[in-house]
Structures are given as structure tokens and as C-alpha cells.
Amino acid sequence: MSIPLSWYLILAAALFCIGLYGVLSRKNAIAILLGVELMLNAVNINLVAFWRYFNPAQMSGQAFAVIVFAVAAAEVAVGLALIISVYRRRKTVLADEIDLMKW
Amino acid sequence: MNFLIWFLPLPPLLAFFTIIIFTNKSKPLSHTIAIGAAGLSWLGSMVIFVKAVGMQEFGKHIFESSVNWLPTKDLWLQIGVRVDPLSAVVLFFVAWTVLAIFVYSIGYHNFGQPKGDHDLPGMPPHGAIVVEKGYKSLVPSIEPMYSRFFAFISLFAFGMYTLVLSNNLLTLYIGWEIMGLCSYLLIGFWYGKKSARDAAVKAFMTTRIGDVFMLLGIAFLYSATGSLTFSEIFQPRVLEALLAANTPVLGLSAAGLIGLLLFIGTIGKSAQWPLHVWLPDAMEGPTPVSAMIHAATMVSAGVYMVIRMFPLISLDAHTMTVVAFIGSFTALFAATIAVAQNDIKKVLAYSTISQLGFMIAALGVHAYVAAAFHLVTHAFFKALLFLGSGSVIHGMEHGVLHTGEHVDAQDMFNMGGLRKKMPITFWTFLIGGLALSGFPVLTAGFWSKDEIFAEAFGKGHLAVFTVLALAAFLTAFYTMRQITLTFLGKARTRAAEHARETTWTMTIPLIVLAVFAVGFGWVGIPEHFPGLGGILPNWFHEFVGGTLAELPEAVKFSWIPLITSLGVALGGLFVGWLVYRKVRNPAEDRLQIPLLKNKYYFDEIYNSLLIRPAYWVAESFTSLFMDRKVIDGSLHGVARFSLFLGNAFRNYFDKPVINEFLGDGTGKAVKASGFSLRKIQAGRVQYYMVASVVVLVIFAVLYYFLNTGM
Asked: Which of B397, B456, B576, B590 is the most buried (most CB within 10 A)?
């Protein structure tokens, strides 16, 4: 292969960190979800890269990636449902203001 | 036979318990049980006496039996009984006098009379109002504590029988002390009266002093010989050993010291000088008590003990001198006091002390049989006199209640002319008084007193003889004084005019005792007595003399003691009658000398010398100082120290360290940390996520370093 594996892994790590930064610093809950999506996609890239470079014949690598996608999608759906529910109650989507579970 | 001897003291003891536990409420039942018991013992005593008299050489074949009681290392302290000639005759008079007095007590305590109106147990009964044919009269009332009296005299009888029948000093001492206890209980019978209570304590304390010394003597004897049994101690080798052993006390031999110590017990119990002070006060008790305890039996116990221990006591001449001195001194001393007494019972009390002095003096001059003889005759006539005086007092009290006059029923100067009103009492009292004075031939007292005189004179103890002769003169004098003032002449008060003879339960015992007071002397007529000697054998001398190892010799007859005895007796009686038939009140009685009336101030001397210092020591030293300051003080000190320690612990350790530091401190620390740590839970999700990422990074770094560093 012409592109070394490490380039893909660095890309995945960079995307992961960006996603992590987005989760930790964005106020808007939907933006946090976007960050989570980004992290999941970064993990997917990592997974596929490893599959393609080490054992492209086996199907299980691809299957794994597809499952991760499905799980991500389901999780976003649930997340959005939760945010809508919270919004209906508290009229806000800012993570800072959803702090009923504090001491 | 042995069973009968062991059985003899028991009926009165059982009567005591039965009355106390079961029949206390029922007066007739109580006296029946008591009299039944006394009767049983009397019967047993008579059987034993007859058997004893019937035996030849009884002194050599006595009845004896003992059981081991308390072990003391190698030997045993024993309880035992013994009937030898001495105890047989003593048993005789004890049985008769006890029974007579028990029967007398029924009448004395007014059995059959109604209960008194204001009678309280503890005080003498003072009359009940009875409505008869329309008008009220005051009659004597029954004693509220009737059953208690019979219980106590039964216990007393048990004590006396035990003492008489004992075969060793321990059993004798047991009986001795039981009688001391009963004396206390019975003198203080009317415990509501302070004078009676004081008299009871005084009697007990005074005899106790004697008893302590006696116990010392017994202990010494036991340690020296290993035995207390009479038959064992009176063996010649034991006696010789005791005589040879020396003691550090006053240079006496062991025999002498033991004899002296035992004799001190008798000084207490038989009220000899200087321990005589309790007996006159003991007249506070009811008259049967005075008769039984202080005339016939208990005080005789002291003399009996000396007679018993005669082989031991007679060994040392110094002890015998002391005995003779105390005896004769007391005889004269008490006789001089008796002439100035106005209370009918007090005269008899001092007379008892005096007569016991006669017996002790007789023993002091080695007149063994004479002393025993006088003991027996004295018991009869003195009991007779006391019971007679009780009868007089009852008659007077009847008069007092009848007339409402408040006179002392016991003061002789309130009496007079009772001869007509109370004939049986008069004649029996006269017989008793003549016996006491030693009226010749017809009364027992003459024979026994004459024998004492003969022995004292015949053995050369002229000092004792003279003193006893003087005492005998005074005896006759004050006896006649008593009879004259009480019975002869005219009644001096209205109460005496209305006196009445007492019931049969009181007069029959008087008659019985009078018979003995007359007749008992005739068993001891000396052989060489002019005229009468030899007609009847001197049975008493042979019989009782056989108790000793060697029959004592009868003293040679001499006219001097006989003439002296006749002279003092008849002379005293005559002078007494002559002087007192004219005397109407104490002012005319020239013998009311303060020194004599106040008993030579001995009570006051003892009070200031002995009793007040004893009380002072008890109150100031022992009670205030030792008890409160020293003992209580140290206890309080311990308490204060513990309190101090406790407080210190509490304030310096418990509160600051445990409460505040450990207890509250932990709480505060936890609370403070909680306050600060709870800020972690901000409730904001992003904070949680930051935290988890940080921790993840740290773990990753650690994992990396651990794995590569390993």
C-alpha cells in the first residue's frame, strides 16, 4: 500500500481529539452530540484502517464497522430524544443549565 | 438410770420452747405445760434421790455418764451428767423448791382474775374494775405476760438442773450462763419500768465480771490438766500436780490460782462482797423470781460450784483464806445493811447475801458438810420467806386496791397486824424466819448454822467464828424486826387493815416449804449433841460426806459454839421483838442510819469509779474519736479521693480527649470534608466527562510506565 498506516491512525486520533474537545467545551447539548458522533467516526476510521492493512480477507472487520455505525445512529436517536424531552421540561438545551442532579 | 438422769433437765426446756412457739396466747395451757414439766422433773429427781439414798457407799458408786461434744485437737470437751451424794441432795431441794415456786406463780400472777383495764405488757398489772352487786370494786388483774413468765422460769429450771447434774465444769458453766440469762430476762420482766431494766442490766453485768474470771479459771484448768470432768480432776495425782505447779500470779500454786479464779465466779453469782450490788436491785423482778433465782437456786449455784470444786479449792491455804474472809465479811456486812431496810424484799435480799456468806465462810474453814447442809436448809427457808413476802405483798395490794390508798405495798412500815388477816402466811413466815434466825431444835436453820459454828470453832478459826456469831445475832434481830413490823401489832395503814389471805395456789407451796424448813434439819443432828444426838443418825454427814474421797471427820463436840448459837439466835429474836413492837414509823426507828440505809454507798462508789469512766470511754473515746473521727474519717477520705480521681478523669481526659477530640472531632472532620467534597457533584455532565478523561489519561500513563518499566 502506498499510504502508510500511521497516517490513517493519526487522522483518527486527531478527529477523536477534536470530537473530545467538542464534547467537553460546547454548551449546546446538540453540539455535544455532534462531538460524540465525531469520536465514533474517528474510531470507525481506526477500525477500518486496521482491517484493511492487516487482514482484508476476513469479513469481521467490516461487520464490526457497520455495527459501530448502527450503534452510533441509535445512540444519536436516543440522545436527541432525551434532549427534546429535557427541552420540553426546562426550555433549554444548554448543558450548564441542566444541573438538577447536583448536590 | 442414766437415761433418767439425762432426761431430767429436758421437760422444762421443752416446756420453754412449747410455750414460746405454741401456747403463748393461752394462759392456762402455758402454766399447765410448765407445771407439768416441773412435775416430771420433780418426779424424776425423787426417783433418783430415793435410789441414791438406798445405795450403800453411794460416794463410791455414783451414777455418771458423758458424751464427747467438741473436739480440741487430741481431747474432747464433753457434756455429761453425774449423780453423787452432793448432787442428789441438791437435786432434792431444787426439785421441791422449783415445783413449789411454779405452783405459787399461778396465784402470784393472779390467774383467774379478769384482765386489767389499762394493763400493758411490760408493766406490772394494776387492777381491773369489777361491777358486783351494783357497786364497782377494784380487784387485782391477771398479768398480761403470763405465758412469757412461765416460759422463762422453765428455761431457768432447765439451766439449774443442767448445772446440778453436770459432771464437768463445762456443762456446769453452760447451766450457769443460762441461769444468768434467765436472771436478766426475769429481773427485767416488767420491762416497761426503767428501774427493772437497769436492775436487769446491772445483774447481768456484775455476774458477768465474775463469770469472766471463772472462765479464765476453767481455761487454765483445762490447759493444765486436759480435762474438766470432776472425777478426773479430783484424782490425787492430778491435785498434787496442780498444787506443785507454780504460777507467776501472786505466788499462788496452780491449784490456788484456779481455785481463786473459780471463786471469783462465785463472788459474782452468789452476790458476795464486792460484787453484791446486783442482788438487792434484782428485787425489781416478780417475787417468785426473787424466790427462785435469788434465794433457792441461782445464787446457791455459786456455793454449789465451790462445794463441788472443794477438793481443788481447798488445796491452797491462801485461796481458802480469801474464801473464808470474803464469806465472813459478807455475812456481817450484809447483815448490818439489812437492819436498816424498810422494803420487805430488800431485807430478805440482804439476808440472802449474808447467809451465802455463812456458807462460803464455812467452806473457807474446810467445813464441807456444814456448808452443804446450810445450802439445803437455806434454800427451803429462804424460798419460804420470799414466797411469804410475796403473799404479804399480794395481801397488801388487795388492801391498796380496796381502799384506793396509794401506799407502797412493800414497805414494812405500811404493814402491821397482818397476823390476823393472813394467818397461813403469818405462821409459815414465822417458821421461815425462825429457821433463818436459827431457833433451836425445831427449825432446820438451827442445825445447819450450829454445825457451821461448831466447825469454825472446833478447827480454831476464832475470827471467823466471832464474825459469824455477830452476823447471826444481827440476822435474828432483823428477822424479828421484819416479823414484828409486818405481822404483829396493829395495822398502820388502811390498806393493811383490808389485807386478805391469798389463794391456795400461793399458800399450799408455803406450807410445803415450811414442812421442809422444820423437818430437814433433823437428818443432820450431830452425834454428840446433848440429849438429841444419837437418836437419829447423822445421815446427812455420812451421805454427803461420802462425796469426798475421804469422809470428813465430824468435829468434836464443844459447848461454846452451841451456847453461842443459842445465845445469838434467841437473844437476837428477843431484842428485835422488844425494840420493834413499839416502833410505829421510820422516824422512831433508831437504826435508820444513812450509811446503812444507803448500803455503805457502794453503788455510788462503783458508779463514780467504774461506771462513769466506762461510759466516758465509750462515748468520748471510742464513739466520738475512734469511730467517727478515725474510722469514719478514713472512709470519708477514701471516698473523697475517689471522687477527686473521678472528677479529674472526667474533666481532663474524658471530656476533652474522648468527647471532643475523638467524638465530636471525627464528626466535624467528616462534615467539613463532606462540605468540600460535595462540590465535585456539580450536576453538570461535562464536568464529569472532564474528570473521567483526566483519570483515563493518568491510568494510561501509569499503565505505559508500569508495563515498560517492569
From this structure: B456
CA distances from A71 to A67, B336, B617 (A): 6, 142, 111
For chain B, domain boundaries: 366-506+516-591, 606-679, 682-709
Domain membership of residue A19 (yes or no) is no
Within the 20-59 window of chain A, which residues sit less than 8 Å (CB to CB) from chain B? 20, 23-25, 32
Residue A87 is part of which domain span?
28-91
User: For residues B425 and B431, what is the distance between their CA atoms, to the nearest angstrom?
Assistant: 10
Residue A100 lies in a domain: no
pLDDT in tens, chain A (103 residues): 588 999 999 999 999 999 999 999 999 999 999 999 999 999 999 999 999 999 889 889 899 999 999 999 999 999 999 999 999 998 988 888 888 887 6
Instruction: Output the pTM of the full model.
Output: 0.77
Question: Is residue A22 one of the residues assigned to a domain?
Answer: no
Give B664 to chain A, closest Cα distance, Å: 24
- Between CA B319 and CA B252 the distance in angstroms is 8
* Separation of alpha carbons B621 and B612, rounded Å: 13
Is A24 in Cβ contact with B689 (below 8 Å)? yes
- The DSSP letter of residue B494 is H
B681 to chain A: closest CA residue:
A102
Residue to mutate among B686, B695, B697, with most A CBs inside 10 A, is: B686
Measure CB to CB from residue B689 to each of A23, A100, A102 and give the nearest one: A23
Domain count of chain A? 1
Q: Does B684 touch chain A (CB under 8 A)?
A: yes
Put simply, the answer to whether A100 touches B683 (Cβ < 8 Å) is: yes
- Identify the CATH number of the domain in which residue A59 sits: 1.10.287.3510
CB contact under 8 A, A103 and B678: yes
Q: Which of A25, A32, A102 comes nearest B683 by C-beta?
A: A102
Report the complex ipTM.
0.80
Measured between alpha carbons, how far is A101 from B145 in angstroms, rounded to an integer?
Answer: 96
Q: Say whether residue B75 is in contact with chain A using an 8 A CB cutoff.
A: no
Report the pLDDT value the prediction gives residue B710, as an integer from 0 to 100: 62
pLDDT digits (tens, 9 = 90+) for B480-515: 999 998 888 888 888 888 888 888 888 899 999 999
Question: Given this model, what pLDDT does residue A1 score?
Answer: 57
Q: How far apart are CA B689 and CA B172, in angstroms?
A: 111
Query: In whole angstroms, what is the distance from residue B297 CA to residue B160 CA?
Result: 7
- CB of B397 closer than 8 Å to CB of B108: no
B686–A103 C-beta distance less than 8 A:
no
A34 belongs to a structural domain: yes
